[in-house]
Design brief:
single chain; 209 residues; 24% helix; globular
């Protein structure tokens, strides 16, 4: 089982959590949700002598996807997202890029399916399609390391906003209850904003669930 080291970097105007999921044996790294600060993240990767393998997007909003293309170009790596999120990435009114004053489109190179299992950087990862915050939002579950990267689906004692275009409160609650709450209590939840939590904590204390 590959040893996982997680580094958290808060980037961009709305304080998004970007994560480095590092294989501590090989120093390979997956970058999750580089929403901004691509040059600084690239510098950090080089300083730590890490080998970037891929970028994983939990969803296509500007604050999670905005720095992905630039960072990918630094290292010639691919960007992954869930297949239903292509429209969000492609559409400024859905990806909310106008919040920063410029309408932008984003892209992914590889589109994943619900429950697809992939192996990257020595990690086995299950992809959960978790719509509600966006149509193609997803979570990345590392079963052997007992962690899940939840993006803006599940927060510490809260859930993601559903008042954006194509959001759905009913869908996000269903996504969490069907995909995330069945995970073991001790599973660490690396959220898209604010504090890290665990599945057990959310099952017990999250007022939305």
């Amino acid at each position: 089982m590959a040893p996982l080291k997680v580094e958290q970097y808060v980037v961009g105007p709305v304080q998004t959590n970007c994560y480095f999921a590092i294989n501590d044996d090989t120093k390979e790294v997956l970058v999750i949700d580089p929403g901004a600060s691509a040059d600084q993240l690239a510098k950090k990767i080089r300083q730590e002598k890490l080998t970037p393998i891929a970028i994983l997007l939990t969803h296509g909003h500007f604050d999670h996807a905005g720095g992905a293309e630039e960072l990918a170009k630094h290292f010639d790596i691919k960007i992954y997202a869930e297949e239903h999120e292509k429209e969000t990435l492609d559409t400024p009114s859905l990806n909310l890029s106008g919040w920063e004053g410029v309408q932008k489109t984003y892209h992914a190179d590889v589109f994943l399916q619900n429950e697809q299992e992939i192996d990257l950087a020595g990690f086995h990862i299950r992809v959960f399609h978790t719509p509600g915050h966006t149509v193609g939002g997803c979570c990345y579950y590392f079963p052997y390391q007992n962690v899940v990267f939840s993006g803006d689906t599940l927060f510490c004692t809260s859930v993601g906003r559903t008042d954006f275009p194509k959001g759905s409160a009913a869908q996000i609650i269903r996504s969490i209850k069907e995909k995330l709450l069945p995970l073991p209590d001790e599973t660490t939840v690396y959220t898209g904003h604010n504090d890290i939590t665990t599945i057990g904590t959310e099952r017990m204390y999250n007022p939305y669930l």
